[in-house]
Write a structure and sequence with these properties.
By secondary structure, the protein is mainly β. It has one domain: Jelly Rolls (Sandwich), CATH 2.60.120. Helices cover about 0% and strands about 40% of the residues. The chain has no helices and 8 strands. The chain has a 5-stranded antiparallel beta sheet with strand order 1-2-8-3-6, with no helix packed on it. β4 and β5 form a beta hairpin. The radius of gyration is 15 Å and the shape is globular.
Length: about 120
């Protein structure tokens, strides 16, 4: 029996996207918001300093970041702190957040609630 690809993912299901030509970042969608109940997405990504997104505010999504590699300078709302590999932080919907990668490579898994069709 072949498992439903929306419920079970493995390396054979696709792995990382090739590096994005503009910034040498990569991403892998482990679970998309288009799954049953459209409840959440899980995205793993890696990037280098200087390729971070601008300050973000998401009206309908909470984001939980778990750092797998590197050290980041993070701002969520008015709070600023450093997070290292093994650490995590929460960026609630409606609150501005941003991060800067301080190490040669930043890698994280992000849980995004309220789903948002991240495609793999």
């Amino acid at each position: 029996m072949t498992p439903d690809p929306n419920l079970v993912r493995n390396e054979a299901a696709g792995g990382f996207t090739p590096p994005f030509p503009a910034d040498n970042s990569s991403a892998r969608v482990h679970l998309s918001g288009s799954t049953p109940a459209n409840a959440f997405s899980i995205v793993e990504f890696s990037s280098m300093p200087g390729n971070e997104p601008p300050t973000s505010v998401h009206a309908s999504e909470d984001r939980f970041f778990c750092l797998l590699e590197g050290e980041w300078d993070v701002r969520v709302g008015d709070e600023r702190f450093r997070v290292k590999a093994g650490g995590s932080f929460f960026a609630p919907r409606g609150v501005a957040h941003e991060y800067r990668i301080l190490s040669p490579l930043g890698r994280a898994v992000v849980l995004i609630t309220a789903g948002s069709r991240h495609q793999g």
